[in-house]
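User: Some background: our group keeps a shared notebook of sequences we're curious about, and every so often someone picks one and asks for a predicted structure to add to the entry. Today it's my turn. The entry only has the sequence so far, pasted here. Could you supply the structure so I can complete it?
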Amino acid sequence: MNRFVVFLRAVNVSGKNLIKMAELKNILGKHGFQNVQTYIQSGNILLNSDLDKEQVRQKVEDLIQTHFQLAVTAFAYDEAELQKAYDSNPFSADLPGNRVFITFLSEEPQQELRDSLEPQAYLPEEFQVKGRHSYFHLPNGAAQAKLSNAFFEKKLQVKATGRNVNTVRQLLNLLQQTN
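Assistant: Of course. Here's the predicted structure to add to the notebook entry:
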């Protein structure tokens, strides 16, 4: 049995794609997932399954479509993958964890799209794209930021969901506690 973190894209944000996490937790448990936990209301799920991560991702999406009538993109990571994404953060650990973000991308973006981004155009905000992740630092917070998950989706032509490093760190802690 493998332990996974599943991120849901754009749920419970600004009154859209509303999913009660307690209800989702019950549905997932009734459909074969074990030790289901949710963390905060923004679509973070920890669960055990004998399925591989692609099957987990697809089954979660299908269950949400069936039970909530919502087409929500899910991203599934095992502990090693999530730890690698966290460890690959290019920004200093001294920066506030609520101002540094990891965006999980549905696929590795095309090189020409990555090359078309001009990091200096967004200063003082900073970002780097590495494989299937983008990392960005918002020194002035997210309220007026140019960089966001939507920015990376549009520019890189992929689906994306992001979490600040505080949330990712907490999910890694929860994974380690349940192993």
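Suggested note for the entry: The chain has two domains: 2-78, 81-176. The CA atoms of residues 18 and 168 lie 22 Å apart.
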